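Quick one: structure tokens for this chain, please?
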Amino acid sequence: MEHLLLAPTFVKRAESDVPLQLQVLHKGVLRSVYSAIKTCSHLYIVGYRFPMTDYEFYLAFRSAVRTNESLRRIVVVNKPKPPSEMVQFVVHFQSLLERTGKEDLLEFDFGGVEEWVKKPLLL
């Protein structure tokens, strides 16, 4: 089993004002994430709202999910939300997976991260 923790990053794209070392590091992180997502059987997205402003990560994520033949489950874990916010959140993640062929694998857990970690992982 491989675990991958992706911390939020302020390097959203290559820009002239971002130091080259950070650009190289960011590209390396994206390659690592792509590789892990492309080969996993279960994908857990915990506490991440997946902002569309992080376009490079969005493209890497979609491509990796679309080409992953082993993927059986995608679980999005987040804190409890009011009903209207929950609907927006679900629609947002559904749109991320649109036309990947993996739309039916998407599940949500709005019990909060603290409660989710107490549950056994269903593999």
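The beta strands are 42-46, 73-77, 106-109.
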